[in-house]
Amino acid sequence: MYKIAVIGGDGIGNEVMDSCEYLLDKIDLEFSFEYGIAGFECFNNTGTTLPEETINIANKSDAVLFGASTSTPGQPSPIINLRKALNVYANIRPIKSYKGVNCIRDDIDFVIVRENTEGLYSQVEYGDCEKMIAERHITKKASERISKAAFNLCIKRGQNKVTCVHKSNVLKKTDGIFKESFYKVAKQYPQITAEDYYVDATAMYLLTQPQNFNVIVSSNLFGDILSDESAGLVGGLGLAPSGNIGDHNGLFEPVHGSAPDIAGKNIANPCSMILSASMMLDYLGEWELSNDIKKAVEKVIADCKIRTPDLGGNACTMDVTKAIVKELI
Predict the structure, then answer these.
(1) CB 104 within 8 A of CB 142
(2) Is the pLDDT score of 311 beyond 90?
(3) Chain centroid, CA 326 distance in Å
């Protein structure tokens, strides 16, 4: 039995989490769910966006499922702090074309590996009413660690190229370290092609030649921006899962936010959350079930019959979930 920490969060985070739990209850695997709270509603009730109890639940689990959180003015991000607390330093965001979806190309299949612990996401800011300063922390240790994760993932995926994304022509010190660390690690993987691009050029190449990418590795902020752009190439954030992987913990979440504009309407696309659960099963070593879930999602999307409004349909969240479960079992 796997012990899974479940943190719904805010808005549609709770709705897609309900769908995810519904699916996990239907598969031939035993789970013990333990629930934690985080986010804006949590802050209103407890005075903190991420209680210590939630961190403890997550640390004691085999894996963590997280829905979404709404930004709380003046308060730290619960998901960023949870990633730090679990030391899940590699944010893995797959980007894939799905048959039946209006994608920019039908042969897109790459993954963005985003450094998860430093950069501008260090949340070190200070100043006064006239001037604010945000510190950008980049270390050799973290840069080498995330580069190794990218090369190892490239091998696991059966691909042969890793692209480092940076802006070392302007950020000569910080991105200089990131780029140098990347090529240092690349020497350990002679069978893999290593290349690098500036982040602005990469943003253009993702639109003009996305089929040429296998694995992209980047710092925290660049990786976040590029992954949202990439999701737009293949149907939007409703099809964008992610995993946060460390040496001892795994945290899995959809890339979309809490979407307060559609919260409570039962029209959120559950696919990104369900695909995130598939990534969780892969992390736990349940590879066959992980692949079965991905295939079931692909089948439902390709059928074009049951879709949420973001993909041009009129089905509700649970309609799509039940269709996926039907394909799965």
Answers:
(1) no
(2) yes
(3) 26
